Every structure is written in structure tokens, then in C-alpha cells.
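job 3f2a | input accepted
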Amino acid sequence: MKLALVGDIGGTNARFALWEDDRMHSVRVFATADYTSPEQAIQAYLDGLALARGAIGSVCLSVAGPVSGDEFRFTNNHWRLSRKAFCKTLQVDELMLVNDFSAMALGMTRLQPDEYRTVCEGTPDATRPAVVIGPGTGLGVGTLLNLGHQHWLALPGEGGHVDLPVGDARESAIRHEIEKKIGHVSAETVLSGGGLLRLYQAICALDGVIPTLQSPADITEAALAGEPVALAVIDQFCRFLGRVAGNNVLTVGGRGGVYIVGGVIPRFVELFLASGFAASFADKGCMSGYFDGIPVWVVTAEFSGLVGAGVALQQAWAQGSQHPA
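job 3f2a | predicted structure (325 res):
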């Protein structure tokens, strides 16, 4: 059987690996700005492994955006592709495209013990949905269903664009401060890399503090160094994330647990574990008791999207289909 290739393509980087014998290996990362198309980047990947065109039978790419039809335009970089032209150029038999957050959710099924930290203790109910939520460039939200017999279904959605929930007068004032500048305040408005800076600026405005930090990285670095305002911003970020995650658990009955993914939280994971996330997660009035025993994990695995693309491919093979469930 020919080798398979899996990819996880983001706005800045494209990650590729070979999928063989139900596992991933030979991971390489490429800057999307350095290549004009995914075909060109994949060719560079194959060249680096001394693999000729035709050596790869199947390709599964995790991509940001809805996937349907022959043409796909990437929403977070300048690339675009035609499925037919892609297969012809690289001499592959099949190309699968999966939504990036579906792939991320499927990647949770292969987590290793050293690739996550426990935020809230509990026992997952395997018969109920799990929630996967991730602040990164935006805010991704998905649902993972265990269908039994090692088969999984990932349901993508647009949960990052729900209204930002507030739990007290302070949070209401923060949201109002942001609303004055940009109008409607979605969860993603705050719970993303750019949102962290927006939150910092709102808190400074409310508290009469002159903002001196210019980027999300500056805020994270200052918080890790113990700077009080930055620490307060990080804690409020985590509290908002707890409220959104809790809302999603109630919406889908997510007693299968909650996976916190994405590129933001792992940068300050110890602060996250010590934050008010857990308190706001279960702060649901008469429904607060519903959260007893629901586990929450923060995922530190580096290549979950790649692994999820491999799982999608593996499941499609098992079903005798070229399209993932």
C-alpha cells in the first residue's frame, strides 16, 4: 500500500507528515509565505524525504473553512487549490479536505499521557459528547462524539462567534468598553490572540492605567514576570473562556469532558491552571451542579491537527470512502 500524507495548514505555517501503519512520522513545518501553493510546499516536503511523485497514494489536509466541491480557497493565507489539479500535479490517488477544527477534535482521540494537563478532575462519560475549544488566531469550538468501536464523529461549528457571556458587573463593564470601539462583541473578540490585546486595552481604560504593552506576546511575557495588570488580564481571559466553555457544555450535554486546545493557553499554562477558569466554568446558577465530575484538560500536544487528519483518513479507509465522517 502506498504511503499517505497528512497536513495541517494554518495562516502562518503548514505542517506535513507521513501516515503509515496507523501512525504519524516525519513531521516537517513550512512557512506558507515561502510557497505559492500547497502543491509547491508539499513538493518541497517530499524532496526533503527523497520521495518521488507517485510515492504518495492519499493526502488528507486539515484546512480552515468549509470544504465542498473541487475548488478551495484558504481563509487564513494566500493559498488556493483545485482537488483535480492537486491530484494531477502531485500524482496522488485521492485528496481529502477536513475542517481544521474537526481534525483538531479527532486528534483528541490519540492524546498521550504527557500531552495534556488536568484542569478539573472528573470522569468522562464516553456515551456523551465532548467539547473541544481553542483560542488561537480565532476561537474554534467543536463537538466530539464517540460512536463506539474506535470510531469518532467530529461536529464543527461556529461557536466562537456567539456573544461574549458576562457573569458580573466588572465583566459587563469590560464588554461595554470593547463594544464602544468595535460594536458587537463575540466570544472570539476576546478569546483569541488579538483578543488578549483588546482585553488588556479595555481593562487599562476602565482602571485608568496607561497601556504600555503592544502585543499579546508582551502581555504574556509581562504576566509570567508577575506584572499585576498583565496578570489580571490573563486571569480575566481565563474566566471568559470558562464561561464560554461552560455554555457549550450545557448546549451539547458535554459530559464527555472538555479539551482546551489552540496556541494561546499553552503559553501560560501554569497561570491558566491557577486562574478563575474552573470557577466561571461551573458558574451557571441553578445548573452549576451539572458540572460536578466533568473533567477538563488543557492540551499541550504540538501536532493534534496533523494526528486528527490521520484519524480522519484512517476512518475513511475503514468505511471504504474517500470522505471523512
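job 3f2a | The first strand starts at residue 3 and ends at 9.
job 3f2a | closed
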